[in-house]
Amino acid sequence: MPVRLRKFIGTILIVVLVILYALLANTIAVATLAESPWWVHLLYFSLTGLLWVLPAMLIIKWMAGPRPK
């Protein structure tokens, strides 16, 4: 697969990932954290704010293609 096509597909995947992940994280927060103290909200959103990076890193690695030998 050409690198340009790989990067195009990867960019679309990352945008979709971020949108779906944000919707899911906020839906879970609204459903479960309504009566929680402020520090639970801070901890939850700090963790979920960093957690999306893991699948994005995999997509970026895939976008870069195989390592040159």
UniProtKB/TrEMBL annotation:
Question: One Pfam annotation, family name?
Answer: DUF2842
Annotated membrane-spanning segments are 12-32, 38-60
Q: Which UniProt keywords apply?
A: Membrane, Transmembrane, Transmembrane helix
Query: What name does UniProt use for this protein?
Result: Uncharacterized protein DUF2842
Say which species the protein is native to: Rhizobium sullae (Rhizobium hedysari)
